[in-house]
Fold this protein.
Amino acid sequence: MSSRNIILQRLRNRTGGELTAPECDFSVLKRPDWSTAERIELFEKMIESVHGEVHHCTSDSWIERLAEVLNTRGARNLMVPNEHAIGQAIKASERTDLPELLLYDEPIESWQLHLFNEVDASITSTRGGIAETGSLILWPTPDEPRLMSLVPPVHIAVLNASEIYTTFHEAMLAQNWAAGMPTNALLISGPSKTADIEQTLAYGVHGPKELIILVIE
Amino acid sequence: MSDITAQSHHHIDVREFHPRAHAAIHNPKIRQNFRKAMDGLMAKRKAAFEGWDLETLRDLGANIRLKALSNLPDLLEQLEQKLTENGIKVHWAVDGDEACRIVRDICMARDAKTVIKGKSMVSEEMELNHYLQDQGIEALESDLGEYIVQLADETPSHIIMPAIHKNTGEISELMHEKTGTDLSNDVEYLTASARQQLREKFMNADVGVSGVNFAVAETGTLCLVENEGNGRMTTTVPPCHIAVTGIEKVVPSLEDVSALLALLTRSATGQHITTYFNMISSPRKGEELDGPEEVHVVLVDNGRSSIYQDDELLDTLRCIRCGACMNHCPVYTRVGGHTYGTTYPGPIGKILMPHLIGLDEGRHLPTASSLCGACGEVCPVKIPIPDLLVRLRQESVDGDRLHPAKVRGHGAKRSTGEALIWKGWAWMHASPGIYRLGTGVAAKFRALQPSKAGAWTDYRTAPKLAAKTLHQRMKERGQ
């Protein structure tokens, strides 16, 4: 008999009594109906407590703020999505104070070394935020691949204030995740960190050292 | 560090608990490292649950896990079906050896020589690293704590913070000796050095091996909780990803995950959420530009289906591996994780490991507890750990009367002499005449009572029998 059938048979023929599934009441996860302003405030407080940096912008001002953020860090280049409105807007702005723009338009195998060693910063969209935990929701796409938010030392994420949910539970139900999950879905809450050496926090252990959020209000 | 408490993987005799405990208690460095860390973790957990109706949330966590376990075989089949539909290959392993062979065969089919690993306690259970090494495949840990532990050729001393037994100075010396970094107490420098060393490894690895925190049956999704990003690297950069998981990690729906995640990270490290919550549902699809082309899941039984047979022991399988029980355990805090000599240390180890290694080899595990109850009080899924410790204690001395043999090594600590003494004790207490005679004689000859009673009286005065029994005194008072 295959290992699969041995395991399943042992589980099905258990010697104990009949098992019944208890009712699960998820209401303990629910929070009061906060206003957008309250959700933004909590989101900011939570993500800043884990070293995220929040900038409040408008749809007119965010590219200017982006240029400032990059210039203060001396970034030599910025990886942008090719098709997403964010990438389109950055490219169309033709600002001279933005660093060289890079695209992630080849399979990783052909330029892995370059991605790991030469890219200073990346900017991606988000599918929303979570106020209670200070989290960003990302569903990577061919236009914004998985490593884009992981490998460069600075990750900049654009978040629409109207898309900040109160809890993870609320977000996954509102966006109906159960209907179909992407290859990879992520919650990102702050830059990469570790406390494995004597509980001392250090940032950027494997992923970005800095996470910058441009909140568009 | 003491040679006795920081043993390498090989040849640990779990039965040598007492000598290791003795050495650890007399090692101020270990005491300091653990005390400091555990105090911090307890305070952080408490703060993270502020404003929550924690009891109701724990009830929900317990009910979700019970719901999943009550339907375990069907859920596993649903999970298998969904994963397969998503393009993920599913394998089943009866024990750790079979799971190791499955991983090796996947590696060999790809001609893989190097494996990079994300944190996985199941792979520790399987002793995967040494197995692969013996097969000529390099397996490198990428979680910083696991990386440090691997450099030192040790085992993790905590399931969430593997290198918690070492302080910065010790880690600096270790990295200097093994990787050539400068001696430094600057944690940022040490972390940055590890980042550089491991980035090379991620790029060159043929296969990434990770664990799984939750496997969602309704969507065929593997969830990984982490702070460093090494889990995302491991599951994204190499062309092949193998996830190993215990069969009990399956939950019915995504909604269940939201509640368990809220409990897991707050209980473990007092974080509202970890930096990354990574949900994987398929290999790289046609137009995607990164991610592994092959994803495998190995569903590992390794004793879990035995635990599943018994209504009481079943609760052991609720565990979501947060480590809160060890953080709050007065025994663990004093002796440290290596003293147990088992993959899972602390309270959860004491109720889980006897099933994996038997009550004979694990004879000291259920008794390495004061039954203070802290573990049960903080468990996010309300596992009655103290009750299960008592059950295992009974099983290890029971002669098949209380329970038919359920746990391997049942009755391993039973001694005929002790059984006889307790039988006599019970008989005496059930017979008033014999009881009075017995206590009367004991009171009369109390001068013969020894003043020393082994280790008990090293730090305590021996209790003395009273000159008169309670019955005699009551009689004198005319009552």
Notes: Chain B touches chain A through 99 residues (CB under 8 Å).
